Amino acid sequence: MTDYLLRISSLSVNYGATPALQDIDLVVRQGEVACVVGQNGAGKSSLLSAVAGALPNQACQGQVEYQGKSILGRKAEDIARMGISLVPEGRHVFSDMTVKENLLIGTYMRRDRRNVKQEIETVLELFPRLRERLAFPAGLLSGGEQQMLVIGRSVLTNTKFMLIDEPSLGLAPLVIDNVYQALLALRNERGLTLLINEQSSNRVMKYADTIHVLRGGRKRLTTTVQEVGNGETLKAAYFGLTKTDETAAEVM
Ligand SMILES: Nc1ncnc2c1ncn2[C@@H]1O[C@H](COP(=O)(O)OP(=O)(O)OP(=O)(O)O)[C@@H](O)[C@H]1O
C-alpha cells in the first residue's frame, strides 16, 4: 500500500504531430501541495488536462493512476466523480449569473444534497469577499474575486484532489497571497490534495511541499521545499542553463 494519491508513469501527450509532454513520471502524495512550474509552452496545462480527462484519448499515452485505479482514457465526468476537479486557467465564471448561482453550479453533481448549505457556508468563510458579493453578477468581480469563485465552486463539487492551472495569473501579489492562504487552509482543514501549475518558481517556493519543473515537455527536476535551498538548482532546471541538468543540451 503506497501513500501516493496520483501516480503518473511514462505519460506523453501529442497534439497531432506536436509533442507537448514526453515520458513524464510524477507522483503526488495524499495531502500535499505539489506545484508544477515551467515557462510558457512547457506542458503544464497539458499535464493537468491529461489527469482530468480533458484531452482526446488519442493524444495521451502512458499511465495515470488515482488511488491505485487507472484513469487515463476515462471520461472527464467519471474522473470528476472520483473526486478530481480541474480549475482551468482563465477563471471561467458564468458572467451574467450571480456569485451564488455560480457557486450552486458546483454542487449539482453532489449526491449528499443535505450538506450543500453547510458547504456553501464553509466556502464563504474561506472567501469572505464572496459573501459580500453573493448577489453580484460574477462578471463584475475583480480578477482575484473571480479566482476565489472558481476555487470555491470547485470545492463545492466535493473534490478531494484539486488541479489548479495558474491561479496567480494577472493578480496582484497581495491577492495571490490571499488565494494561496485559502488553498493552504483547504489542505490543512479539509485534507485536500493540490496540484498547482505556476509560471513563477519564486512564488511556489513559499507554498509548495514538492516542486516539479517542466521544460520543453519533459520533467527536469522534482524537489522539495526542504531541498530547494537558494533555488539555484531549480532555476537551472527551469531555464536549462547548467551542466547539472543532464538534458539541457537537447533543448537549447
Ligand atoms: N490544442 C493544442 N493543439 C496543438 N498544440 C497545442 C495544443 N495545446 C497546447 N499545445 C502545444 O503544446 C505545448 C504545451 O502547451 P501547454 O499549454 O501544455 O503548456 P503550458 O506550460 O501550460 O504553457 P502556458 O504557461 O503558456 O499555458 C505547447 O507547445 C503548445 O503550443
From TrEMBL:
GO MF annotations in UniProt: ATP binding; ATP hydrolysis activity; branched-chain amino acid transmembrane transporter activity
Domain ABC transporter: 6-241
UniProt signal peptide: none
Keywords, sorted A to Z: Amino-acid transport, ATP-binding, Nucleotide-binding, Transport
Any single Pfam family the record assigns to this protein: ABC_tran
GO biological-process terms attached to the record: L-amino acid transport
PROSITE patterns for this protein: ABC_TRANSPORTER_1, ABC_TRANSPORTER_2
Domain of life, source organism: Bacteria
InterPro entries: ABC_transporter-like_ATP-bd (IPR003439), ABC_transporter-like_CS (IPR017871), BCAA_Transport_ATP-bd_LivF (IPR052156), P-loop_NTPase (IPR027417)
Family membership noted in the UniProt record: Belongs to the ABC transporter superfamily.
Protein name (database record): Amino acid/amide ABC transporter ATP-binding protein 2 (HAAT family)
Organism: Eoetvoesiella caeni
